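input
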Amino acid sequence: MNMTNEEYNEYIKKRQPKSPLGRDLLLAFVIGGAICCIGQGITDIYSHFGLIKTDAGSAASITMVFLGALLTGLGVYDNLGKYGGGGTLVPITGFANSVVSPALEFKSEGIITGMAAKIFTIAGPVIVFGISASVIYGLILLLFGLA
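output
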């Protein structure tokens, strides 16, 4: 069966199921918003118990990383990602998920050559480019006297 690229693309378009874009966007918004509301609630709880705003924010970030890692380890976060899609990529919990997932995937290869070697497979480039960008931005601000 000989097909041109255009014919093949048309064939695929006819056979491909339609993506429920509206539903996916709504679920991402709701799940991502719920994660953010939980984080804000945790911050408020820490503030209520006497932490100043910056310390409460730091403690809440640590708690959210812990919860994201725990829920990934229990398999809950991945199931949440099936429904919430991009909404589960909220930076704090999404980062924890991106660190723990490869570690779990490669744990059968051993602690050193599996988990330890692969733990930052996904998150490593994010850390490297995030730090590099912050250094560049800091230098630009310093050079222009905005710091």
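quick obs: The two ends are 65 Å apart (CA to CA).
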